[in-house]
Amino acid sequence: MARTSLRDTSNGKIFSTANLIFGIGQISKMTDVSTRQLRYWESKGYIKPKEREDGNTSRLYGYDTFLKVSGIKLMLDEGYTLAASVERTDALMAEAFNIRGFLLDAYHGEATIDGQTMLDLGYFDEDHTQRLYAHRTADNRVHYVVKPENGAN
DNA sequence: TTTCTGACA
DNA sequence: TGTCAGGA
Description:
Layout: E1 21-23, H1 24-31, H2 35-43, E2 60-62, H3 63-78, H4 82-106, E3 110-113, E4 116-123, E5 130-136, E6 142-148
Antiparallel strand pairs: 1-2, 3-4, 4-5, 5-6
Helix pairs in contact: 3-4
The structure holds a DNA duplex (9 and 8 nucleotides).
């Protein structure tokens, strides 16, 4: 029987954050950053409210902005200047999205190898005769296993 | 009630 | 950045 996998489900629409929209007051409470600061950061070009077609002038922020504000706030609390906090948050977010994209491309589903549930990481070699699997050990170390494609090695 | 811009401390 | 004014 076919099983559902993140790799081929809804074109990535599952767990989408596209409809997570927040007002300035909500973002403020969620991140503990004042509305005054949020408007100031916007004036500095650090954050950008969502474009809106209706006449309403109140700001709306997407999930991405919530993440960015959270990151900046964290750096600020660590003692970095606002500019440095923005720079570091941008870098970390870029890295995080890179990792996410890489992982989604590398992930080919789950497989049970020797009674152990493992991640199928796809073909291991150029001629597609072996697949690479990985799983985490009890102490959270990553363990890799290479197995022949058809099981008859 | 919430949000907005501008201004003053 | 906080806070207040005066509107919307």
